[in-house]
Amino acid sequence: MLGFAVRRLLTLVPLLLIVSLVFFLMLRLGRGDPALDYLRLSQLPPTDDALALAREQLGLDQPLAAQYWSWLSGALRLDLGRSWSTGRPVLEEVLHFLPASLQLAGTALLLVVLVGLPLGLLAALYRDRWPDHLTRAIAFLGVSLPNFWLGFLLVLLFSVQLGWLPAMGRDGPASIIMPAVATATMSACVTLRLMRSAVLGVLGERHLVFARARGLPRRTILGRHVVLNAMIPPLTALGLHVGELLGGAMVVEMVFAWPGLGRYALLAITNRDFPVLQGFVLVMTLVFVLCNLLVDLAYAWVDPRIRFGARAA
């Protein structure tokens, strides 16, 4: 397993290079003039002399290959450049906003696990009965609701009408409840449906008949022979949800004014802040790959039949 982890970490290097190059070219070859955007953010008049000076300062007068190499050499030294809108180092700002995003994503992931997995198991065990119909209706509704619209509904109900929870900001445990629920709802419903399908597939296998014939307790059968064997699809989804909850919650962070990395990136998109966008994409790619690596390693713990390497034990 250690060799598998090392090989996956080695593949991270070319993946980051490819992603950074593609995104760099998308920004540079897109419409608009980055120097003009830089002057607008700096609140300077876009005269010809100012544009020429801005292109020289930003290195935009150089060939694209030289520009990319300049940025890449800085990234290898953990220098992602400076934000055009604030003038501060991008890595410093990313590390400043990252804890809030990790807090929100971690709370949302906890809700996904505590809600999606038990309800999926319940729906499978009571197939075609009222718990199954109820959970499937909840899952269908949760997948259909956009997270930002659900956020507005939560603010209207719990902040405006009832006054129970703060509408925005990060001022205590109560302020994370609505953003976490809005972020986790869709992922929890997807996990619920995957868990239900996986458990139904395991319940039809023959080894459960022999387990009952041996007189094993129902709790042991459910825990060791049903849940563990059904965890592969939900575990894969959970690994993908970690990256989605970190990078895809930017709209939710804007709704609740949550000072996280997604809100920071959305403001950078509005301002066309190229250094911030390049740093954000690089960090999100790293998070996605590491989450997938952790999921792959967790497969061996959940299912002993899986072995990483050239041969199985």
Automatic annotation (TrEMBL):
It is a multi-pass membrane protein. Signal peptide: none annotated. InterPro entries: BPD_transp_1_N, MetI-like, MetI-like_sf. The chain crosses the membrane at residues 104-126, 138-164, 176-195, 226-259, 279-302. Its main location: membrane. Keywords: Cell membrane, Membrane, Transmembrane, Transmembrane helix, Transport. It is found in: Cell membrane. The keyword tRNA-binding does not apply. Residues 98-299 form the ABC transmembrane type-1 domain. NCBIfam families: PRK10352.1. Belongs to the binding-protein-dependent transport system permease family. This is Nickel ABC transporter permease subunit NikB. It comes from Teichococcus aerophilus. The gene is nikB.
